[in-house]
Amino acid sequence: AQSVTQPDIHITVSEGASLELRCNYSYGATPYLFWYVQSPGQGLQLLLKYFSGDTLVQGIKGFEAEFKRSQSSFNLRKPSVHWSDAAEYFCAVGGNSGYALNFGKGTSLLVTP
Amino acid sequence: DAGVIQSPRHEVTEMGQEVTLRCKPISGHDYLFWYRQTMMRGLELLIYFNNNVPIDDSGMPEDRFSAKMPNASFSTLKIQPSEPRDSAVYFCASSSSPQKETQYFGPGTRLLVL
User: Are B105 and A94 within 8 A, CB to CB?
Assistant: First the structure.
């Protein structure tokens, strides 16, 4: 069965600092991988996705993620965090014949001045 | 496009009452998903439809939960009778080809069962 682990429940970074959010997946075949962001009281917005090809994918809002098959990881990065990036971030894996996404428990990002 | 529309945005009810959550997917999308989000369990898929037909309802917690999609532009998730442990945020999402496209999420319905 496919699953996703986000090891960090909370992360605090200073505004302007770099950010890396970790995501590890478990899936037997090539997964479809996603990062979503959820602002307080809002739905989920897709940041980026990986299906195949270049393992470094670019997303919206200056985010990028790198697929590393050898490490079963799909970590999200941003070189310089803005206060507006404070939100909950979810990694998800798909590809099962059931067409559903399995989400990680999320990482809450706090940005300090 | 208005995106996925959910109503109501907030619902407060008493235990034992019937609750109906509504969703309008993005026009042209043929997949519709219902998720539940809680602190303890995170985001869980409850059920999804393809072309208005329920495909997988294995995530529906129990018989108190039911979902319907009478047409391509409307779906409901009903809880009867509701219990305090049903308190959560319920999201609807739609997609045109879920394995290769984005699932677009609605703003969610925050349900509180007293």
Answer: no
CA atoms within 13 A on the CB side of A73: 14
- Among A3, A6, A2, smallest CA distance to A76 is for A6
Gap between the Cα atoms of A103 and A29, Å rounded: 17
At position B100, the amino acid (one-letter code) is K
pLDDT for B20-66, tens place per residue?
Answer: 999 999 999 999 999 999 988 889 999 999 999 999 898 998 899 99
Give yes or no for a contact between B32 and B49, defined as CB atoms under 8 angstroms apart. yes
Measured between beta carbons, which residues in chain A are less than 8 angstroms from residue B50? 99
Residues of A in contact with B91 (CB under 8 A): 43-44
Handedness of CA A20, A26, A27, A28 (dihedral sign): positive
- Sign of the C-alpha dihedral computed for residues A15, A17, A18 and A22 taken in this order: negative
Task: Find the CB nearest B42 among A36, A42, A105.
Answer: A105
C-alpha to C-alpha distance for B104 and B88, rounded to whole angstroms = 19
Closest residue, chain A, to B103 (C-alpha) = A46
Contact between B91 and A43 using a beta-carbon 8 Å cutoff: yes
Whether the per-residue pLDDT at A6 is higher than 90: the answer is yes
For residue B8, cis peptide bond before it (omega within 30 degrees of 0): yes
Whether the CB-CB separation of B3 and B24 falls below 8 Å is answered with no
